[in-house]
Amino acid sequence: MGCCYSKKVGRTPGYEDPIILALETPFTESEVEALYELFKKLSSSIINDGVIHKEEFQLALFRNSKKENLFSDRIFDLFDAKRNGVVDFGEFVRSLGVFHPNAPVEQKIDFAFRLYDLRQTGFIEREEVSTHETLKEMVLALLYESELILSDDVVEAIVDKTFTEADLKDDGKIDREEWDELVKTYPALLKNMTLPYLKDITLAFPSFVLTSEVDDIEVQMTEKEHNL
Questions:
Q1: pLDDT tens digit sequence for 58-77
Q2: Residue 130 needs a FRET pair 20 to 30 A away by CA distance; which of 1, 29, 116, 179 works?
Q3: Mean pLDDT on 183-189
Q4: What would the pLDDT profile of 202-211 be if each residue is shown by its tens digit?
């Protein structure tokens, strides 16, 4: 299986040796090779240039390349570790590895924190004034894509409750230390950071879709509403 990867012909930009990626992620070498087959399909779905563009990423996530979504944008930004507007193979495998059931919980906590740190300030804030993006909009976007529709009032109440509990310093924002404490209290907040099917990857790997979101969000919302 690995012999075809010894050839340099046809390798995409950002290609990295499966052996190295297997050492740095929870994936085995054969699973990395399977992910390479998936990556090639995704990276050629709209523009055949060997990297995943945001439109291709959205198509893989939501079956719609033109749909603007704050959640999709943030996930793409975090996968795009080099900050060059595209996701190469190495970035794809390393970022996807965070969602593996065997990935260290610290990595999951960090990724989730950065997901909600909309302006990359090192804090989760209720509203990013410069971009007019709000935590409420982020939650609504995630719920919408999960087909779990809650009223604005309910979402607002959830966000209010979260800040009341998490903002221990009472400064209107949640830092990493406060986030760690919140996750300890509500471990279900990290459930959507684990995709069970990543533990059994083959060349027939289905599709990069966050299929566990609905169940995960329902658990989180139930726990939060219990405490309102």
A1: 888 766 555 556 677 888 99
A2: 179
A3: 83
A4: 654 544 444 4
**Distance between CA atoms of residues 41 and 46, nearest Å:** 10
Question: What would the two tokens of residue 166 be?
Answer: 């998490």
| Domain extent listing, the chain | 14-226
pLDDT band at 44 (very low <50, low <70, confident <90, very high): very high
Whole-angstrom Cα distance, residue 31 to residue 159? 38
- Listed in sequence order, the residues at least 6 apart from 57 whose beta carbon sits closer than 8 Å to its beta carbon are 42, 72, 75, 76, 79, 87
Homologous superfamily assigned to 14-226: EF-hand (1.10.238.10)
Mean pLDDT of 80-101: 95
| Residue carrying structure tokens 């570790």 | 81
The 3-state secondary structure of the chain, one letter per residue: CHHHHHCCCCCCCCCCCHHHHHHHCCCCHHHHHHHHHHHHHHHCCCCCCCCECHHHHHHHHHCCCCCCCHHHHHHHHHHCCCCCCCECHHHHHHHHHCCCCCCCHHHHHHHHHHHHCCCCCCCEECEECCCCEEHHHHHHHHHHHCCCCCCHHHHHHHHHHHHHHHCCCCCCEECHHHHHHHHHHCHHHHHHHCCHHHHCCCCCCCCCCCCCHHHHHHHHHHHHHHCC
pLDDT of residue 121: 87
